Amino acid sequence: MSVLASILAFTTLGGIASAAVAGAVLLLPAPTRSRFLPHLVSFATGALLGAALLGLLPEALERAGPGRGAAVGLAVTAGILLFFILEKLMLWRHSHEGEFHDHDLLQLQRDKASAMVVLLGDGIHNALDGVLIAAAFMTSTQLGMVTGVAVIVHEIPQEVGSFAVLLNSGMARGRALLLNLFSSLTSILGGILAYYALRQALGVLPFAVAIAAASLLYVAMADLIPGLHRRADMEASVAQVLLISLGIGLIAWIGRD
Question: For residue 242, what are the domain limits?
Fold first, then answer.
């Protein structure tokens, strides 16, 4: 299978699978859903950490060559700062949405506006995921598979949240699922654009891979792990450690030589 075909396959699979599983999860009874999602988040955390630290970062250092480790480190640092800024912008947007008075009409307008913001933000995020997958596959098929699996696993909880926001805005289930799917499939566009752009600038590929590692690290450390700490009882903590280890182990197994 060619590199472009692999990119198309994984971005398409990720878009369809994450949207379909998100829709299926929301059909579960609320108690079952509330028990299932934290376990999925723990597993996704391990998959992201494994893909970033066992796959992407070592490959970026190797591809950059001797004496360029500091440049790769700078790319990772810049990537983390970039994703921090992007998240701050989203949080700033949401905080300003809360300035309206809580009347029914305004609440309805806010819910609809939130649905559009979520669709737009989700589309951009998924397009960036496509870029990450493309950069990984252009480095090696094995690394592409590792990154693709990590991205797909982490997308599912995010798509569940996005789907819930669309339903909360009053949107019908069928239309919400369709729009969520279209938003997810922007990863294909991101993958195709990155493939052709990086082919013209192969010298920046190691640094694109380093930024991809930064993205996965940031999501795991800044977004997912703080949520896991909200449950501090022994049973939940042991389950989290085991599932994070399982996620790391799966990535290590996929990426083995």
Answer: 3-254
